[in-house]
Design brief:
Shape of chain A: globular
CATH topology of the largest domain in chain A: Cyclophilin
Number of strands of chain A: 17
Helix content of chain A: 10-25%
CATH architecture of the largest domain in chain A: Beta Barrel
Radius of gyration of chain A: 20 Å
Oligomer: homodimer
Largest interface: A-B, 78 and 78 residues
Chain lengths: 306, 306
Amino acid sequence: MRRLPLALALSALLPFVALAQAEPAAKGTKYRSAKEIIDAAPDSAWRDLDPANTLYMELPAGRVVIELAPGFAPEHVANIKTMAKGGFWDGTSIYRAQDNFVVQFGDVDADDAAKAKKHPAGTKEKLPAEFTRKGPARFDRLKDKDGWAPQVGFTDGFAVGHDPAKKETWIAHCYGALGAGRNNAPDSSIGAELYVVIGQAPRALDKQLTMVGRVVQGMSLLSATPRGPEPMGFYEDPAQRAPITAIRLASDVPAAERTNLQILRTDSQAFIDATEARRNRKDDFYTIPAGHIDLCNVPLPVRTKK
Amino acid sequence: MRRLPLALALSALLPFVALAQAEPAAKGTKYRSAKEIIDAAPDSAWRDLDPANTLYMELPAGRVVIELAPGFAPEHVANIKTMAKGGFWDGTSIYRAQDNFVVQFGDVDADDAAKAKKHPAGTKEKLPAEFTRKGPARFDRLKDKDGWAPQVGFTDGFAVGHDPAKKETWIAHCYGALGAGRNNAPDSSIGAELYVVIGQAPRALDKQLTMVGRVVQGMSLLSATPRGPEPMGFYEDPAQRAPITAIRLASDVPAAERTNLQILRTDSQAFIDATEARRNRKDDFYTIPAGHIDLCNVPLPVRTKK
């Protein structure tokens, strides 16, 4: 008697079917769940994922769909596109899976000059650090307080921190965020070695690395990767590494083979209302409204394009 | 060149080797990393895990060690001990793994009166909800702000929310927290069906369920469970469910077969200092101190008893 009821009761908390934001929902109207709000959202509330800024990471078990963030890391994203076009990641691996932290992938021999995989023609071997985005950008603020940033919200559909005094915005290290691994030097990343957050948001890393995108579909293909047995989740045994068949830019994949997705706009009324519905849930299961939502608990709804 | 340096640089963020808390570290002294502080902690800073309040969940791949929380849920914990002694979970399964949320385990047929596994003699079939702990309890407060609770910190070594006005304390839904699944009725859990948080802390669930403990070792045996293909992460195909060999109370296991662990006390100076070292990191990798740590980003260090 406790299996399905619990499941149904928690169902409105599904990570990939819900949301949150700044303006309060209309008062006095009947409570609708986030799911009801999203299901009723007009087509205009959805945006197409742009194939020119979408990566397909092909794993034996399926496809991971990644939205790139050229507005935050133009140089890194351009380099990643060059490398994807050149097939750099084809045949590489997920060579690190550290519990409650990150999976990391790319060329496991990148540190060994003798064995390192050659970068495709046109790859830039040196890039500036792109930790924060300066200047004006649309920012849909969450009203909720946050310990890591003066303000939080969404820019270009990414969960971000924002500092109005410094006029800086940065992609937060939420679950599914994609970052560029680096050495100690801030400008030591070029986008060849990448990591995805698979645990509690390690936001102490915010503004310390160049963030290049986020996973929009297929997270469970990464998050359930067996953790590596070596320190920090590395696999010394090559057989344990998870192979990457290919990483391609969606626009380089034939139209018939694409995964056509839409993302709910973070400036849509549906997103704002659904977020409020999550902040203050009213249903048969939840007895106390939280009155709050954390930036990294706000799901960004995805649907297959009709 | 980007593999090990990144790994080493991020190493101080290892989830199971670090910490955080209320009082500031001594000023004017040389910066020490959390790891250095913990490694230098005196034996008196560590407490033994009590075998009478420790569960061993035996999976084919290894042992998950769980610390029970009798101070928060005395009735549920007593029932869980009765069920463990009676072998209730032996041969049951992890029947749900929902990405970025929870794994859930117990008797998959619990809802089917005809097939449900009989509870061991002495199991109470009705318990009160134990969502919050009333009255005085030692509370080691984190100074960091939190959106979900008036105050946060540690009680009995568990990450908790605290409401000084209502004099209530509750275990927060951080990564690794163990809760009792329930139906819509608040008093519908008895501890037979349990869940463990495996993603971004779903703290909207705080104070809505009875929390009975947390995983102190072996989380990756749960978090890397392949996600269930059905809605909410269920597996309809029994072959996909992860089998549970047994769940035993450590005190019922022969001493030679126990996993003897110690936990760093959350009221120790080492814990307080290590937390401060994480809040404001100073090393060759981190260029900006965060000045903050989230309750659910504070690791609770565990070591093998010498």
